[in-house]
TrEMBL record:
Protein name in UniProt: Uncharacterized protein
Source organism per UniProt: Romboutsia ilealis
Keyword terms: Membrane, Transmembrane, Transmembrane helix
TM segment ranges: 28-47
Amino acid sequence: MSAIICFSLTFTLMIINAVMGIFIRLNFYLLLFGILTTGFTVALTLFDSKNIFYSKKVKKPVKSNTVRKAKTKKVEHQTKVRRKIS
């Protein structure tokens, strides 16, 4: 990521200098590109050092019982039949 940023900065500086009439050798731009890339890489590493180097906690999946069987009691309906005595 830092190389992309440094390349775009160096290339933009080359174009601006060429338009303004300032001609600098290519060695200077390559040296500038190398120094900027190294600096940005170190800065990004120090800035995100906690995210890069510290161990990350792994979350274990929790089993969820989404389908639960309803506890139902079996009720037997009994009807009392009255007998007629005749």
